[in-house]
């Protein structure tokens, strides 16, 4: 029996138990998970230091090390994320609507678990607790396959979560960890249709591309964030500078950071030198279009690939546009469907941007860094879906459910 077959069979059995749990039982166990995570924080940090040391030896960039790094504060945030899930309404069993048809049947639509969820992710160990808590609350068994960079951290985290399950007399296999980071096992997950009901990739463009092109299991595509801020001619320029600074610099290695700014030509002469100074003070390299280079002193000429690239680093592409139309056209050509923002005091421009930009999250006068399940009030998140079927945007509890029809009759037969 292959590893994936064993994990899959275990998950199926666990999912059958999970689907019958009431909300109180699930919430009580989630609290035990949060408590044990706090109790064993030093154990997690020891494993994380091993991951960080190995990643540094392999030449991993500092911004990517930040994705991997755990601290006491970040572990506390992970525990609070689990507790936030406890406070959220349990969608399982919810009947969204009910009606009676001509035959007198009472028909309802009810939320149910998806079943078994596979998640393949890279670098960020907080995904382990986020995914596990959301899947558990929605009655789904989960099989987690993290990247080799965070292997030690993920293994310890899953062990702690499984300890909480055991303490609650629930199957440890509700949450399972793939302790093999080889492509072979990842490929097995992609084709494990008899065990997995859905596969969710979280990581860089190459990982997501490989999974979407090769998986036979249904996939919910999450991830890459080639995001933009458009500074309109009616923008408050100080506000625009603050938003761009936050969206680019606060955590450049995450998918809701920005990679390109578009600046209306009417404000380019005033705004571009201003934003250049802000970016230089934060070690951000600029790559500009020919028009922008007229106002930027330190920028390198942008190439076509710069408009397409998710840098996940302190690099920012800059383009001057003639109108909101040109900004929208550029965004819809190059963006990844994640998060887009306009800075403007014009109601008309803002509403056009909201209506015409094709992305999961579209902002007026706010940073794209808010595209996050926790920020939206979903507790933790399973990822940011950039596709349009089943789920789009930050995925919380409802997005990890399906529906079934429940029908009440009193002897009806179809003529």
TrEMBL record:
Top-level taxonomic group: Bacteria
Q: Which InterPro entries match?
A: Ald_DH/histidinol_DH (IPR016161), Ald_DH_C (IPR016163), Ald_DH_N (IPR016162), Aldehyde_DH_dom (IPR015590), G-glutamylP_reductase_CS (IPR020593), Glu-5-SA_DH (IPR012134), GPR_dom (IPR000965)
**Does Oxidoreductase count among this protein's keywords?**
yes
Its annotated pathway reads: Amino-acid biosynthesis; L-proline biosynthesis; L-glutamate 5-semialdehyde from L-glutamate: step 2/2
**Domain named Aldehyde dehydrogenase: residues:** 7-279, 316-374
Q: Does the keyword Oxidoreductase apply?
A: yes
Which GO BP terms sit in this record? L-proline biosynthetic process
Mind listing the UniProt keywords for this protein, alphabetically? Amino-acid biosynthesis, Cytoplasm, NADP, Oxidoreductase, Proline biosynthesis
Cited Pfam families:
Aldedh (PF00171)
Which PROSITE patterns did the record assign?
Answer: PROA (PS01223)
Q: Which reaction does it catalyse?
A: L-glutamate 5-semialdehyde + phosphate + NADP(+) = L-glutamyl 5-phosphate + NADPH + H(+)
Protein localization: Cytoplasm
Cite the GO molecular-function annotations of the record.
glutamate-5-semialdehyde dehydrogenase activity; NADP binding
Would you name any one GO CC term?
cytoplasm
- Entry EC number(s): 1.2.1.41
Q: Which family does it belong to?
A: Belongs to the gamma-glutamyl phosphate reductase family.
Protein task: Catalyzes the NADPH-dependent reduction of L-glutamate 5-phosphate into L-glutamate 5-semialdehyde and phosphate. The product spontaneously undergoes cyclization to form 1-pyrroline-5-carboxylate.
Q: What is this protein called?
A: Gamma-glutamyl phosphate reductase
Gene that specifies this protein: proA
């Amino acid at each position: 029996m292959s590893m994936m077959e064993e994990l899959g069979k275990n998950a199926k059995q666990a999912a059958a138990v999970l689907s019958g749990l009431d909300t109180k039982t699930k919430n009580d166990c989630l609290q035990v998970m949060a408590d044990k995570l706090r109790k064993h924080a030093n154990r997690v940090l020891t494993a994380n230091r091993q991951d960080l040391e190995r990643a540094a030896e392999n030449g991993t960039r500092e911004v990517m090390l930040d994705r991997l790094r755990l601290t006491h504060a970040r572990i506390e945030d992970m525990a609070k994320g689990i507790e936030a899930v406890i406070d959220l309404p349990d969608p399982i069993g919810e009947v969204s609507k009910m009606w009676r048809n001509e035959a007198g049947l009472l028909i309802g639509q009810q939320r149910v678990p998806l079943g078994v969820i596979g998640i393949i992710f890279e670098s960020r160990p907080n995904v382990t607790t986020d995914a596990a808590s959301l899947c558990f609350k929605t009655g789904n068994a989960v099989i987690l396959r993290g990247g080799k960079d965070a292997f030690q951290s993920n293994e310890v985290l899953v062990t702690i979560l499984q300890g909480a399950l055991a303490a609650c007399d629930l199957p440890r296999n509700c949450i399972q960890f793939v302790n093999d980071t080889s492509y072979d096992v990842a490929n097995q997950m992609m084709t494990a249709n008899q065990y997995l009901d859905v596969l969710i990739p979280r990581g860089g463009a190459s990982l997501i591309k490989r999974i979407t092109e090769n998986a036979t299991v249904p996939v919910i595509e999450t991830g890459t964030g080639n995001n933009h801020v458009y500074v309109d001619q009616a923008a408050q320029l100080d506000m625009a500078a603050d938003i761009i600074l936050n969206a680019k610099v606060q955590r450049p290695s995450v998918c809701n950071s920005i990679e390109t700014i578009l600046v209306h030509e009417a404000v380019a002469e005033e705004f571009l030198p201003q934003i250049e100074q802000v970016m230089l003070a934060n070690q951000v390299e600029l790559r500009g279009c020919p028009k922008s280079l007229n106002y930027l002193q330190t920028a390198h000429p942008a190439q076509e690939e710069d408009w397409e690239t998710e840098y996940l680093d302190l690099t920012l592409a800059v383009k001057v546009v003639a109108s909101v139309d040109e900004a929208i056209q550029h965004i819809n050509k190059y963006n990844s469907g994640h998060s887009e923002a306009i800075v403007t005091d014009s109601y008309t421009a803002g509403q056009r941007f909201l209506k015409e930009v094709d992305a999961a999250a579209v902002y007026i006068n706010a940073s794209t860094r808010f595209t996050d399940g926790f920020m939206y009030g979903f507790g933790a998140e399973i990822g940011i879906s950039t596709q349009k079927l089943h789920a789009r945007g930050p995925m919380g509890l409802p997005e990890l459910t399906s529906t079934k029809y429940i029908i009440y009759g009193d002897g009806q037969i179809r003529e």
